[in-house]
């Protein structure tokens, strides 16, 4: 190793404190990624819209009311799915408290992510191996790492502000790409 190369692993763990706003933002971002309208739904909405417009143009008198109802139904479905569900999810998320994350320090090692936490007078040490991580997401604001250790699931929300020489995101990404594969898209 030369002076140009930085040591890629943690010598001193970094403080891992996540605010409520960061946790809520990460939850909402993940929810948005799962709430996409599928191709089948878009195709059905397109066909119903096209038939409704044709019916309005070609039919006369009271027969067009069914076409207008179908057209309004498509627009209502889209608006509820796009805006109404997000409003409801935000409201429901605010009903549940977020986990208080304080007093934890994280580090990156060749075998995984190491967590240190003060418990009374002692310090507990835990480790999540790279092989225990089953998926990860890379967004402009944070990295999300989902893992399963001893049949218990967990996740780390790693805000980009943690990226430093003591906690290198490049090293984390390198290990995740080698063991898990490419990041899932949000």
With helices defined by DSSP (H or I, 4 residues minimum), what is the helix count? 4
**Shape, principal axes of CA atoms:** elongated
Strand segment tally: 7
Poorly predicted sequence stretches spanning 5 or more consecutive residues: none
Query: Span from first to last CA?
Result: 37 Å
How many strands, which pairing sense, and closed or not: the largest β-sheet?
4 strands, antiparallel
User: Helix/strand-derived class?
Assistant: alpha+beta
Mean model confidence by pLDDT: 85
Helix percentage: 40-55%
Strand content: 25-35%
SSE string, helix = H, strand = E? EHHHEEEEEEH
State Rg.
Answer: 24 Å
Strand order of the largest sheet: 1-2-3-4
Explain what this protein looks like in three dimensions:
This protein has helices spanning 20-34, 39-58, 64-95, 169-179; strands at residues 14-18, 101-109, 112-119, 122-129, 133-138, 142-149, 152-159. It has 186 residues and is an alpha+beta fold. It has a domain at 32-95. It has a 4-stranded antiparallel beta sheet with strand order 1-2-3-4. Helix 1 (20-34) packs antiparallel against helix 3 (64-95) and helix 2 (39-58) runs antiparallel to helix 3 (64-95). The chain is elongated and about 80 Å long.
